[in-house]
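Quick one: structure for this chain?
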Amino acid sequence: MKTTPAMLTFMMLLAAVPAAAQEPEILDVSDVVVGSQRLETRYAFALGKWSDAGKDVGTNSTQIHCYKSFGFCEVARAYSMGAQAWVSLDSFDVLRWDDKEMIAVDSSPICLVSNLRFDFVAKKVSLSSTSKGETKDKICASVDTLKTAFLTGLKDEHKRIDAEAKQKKK
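Got it. Here's what it folds into:
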């Protein structure tokens, strides 16, 4: 993927919002009862916007639902590409869930393994990806891994807008 001046500007603005400030709009962890069989499970819910989503994506464009007893998470997100809006629903398998963190992976893409992490202590949610290494599929040579993105909320959006306004004044 080629880096455009607009992408560079966005990355600089993103850097202006410290990672320490990046928190989801909502992050809730609680015990719930689900389904007609009324099964009890630990549940984590997060709502926000990925830090790398761009300014045209809404503040509450991502919802994450995780179920400890069932061992999976669903990540629903809206995004824009060009002049169109899109939506995706991805499933992650929970590898670890304790009082401090939850880690889940999605290894279904051909070239990448996506990692979802809830840090319950710091109240942060992050998403990153790593390469699966050498594969026979030639398309993998052109696929970039994602830098870590954090789920942000309205406070972070205001900081981004303020940083963008300051940049325009210069």
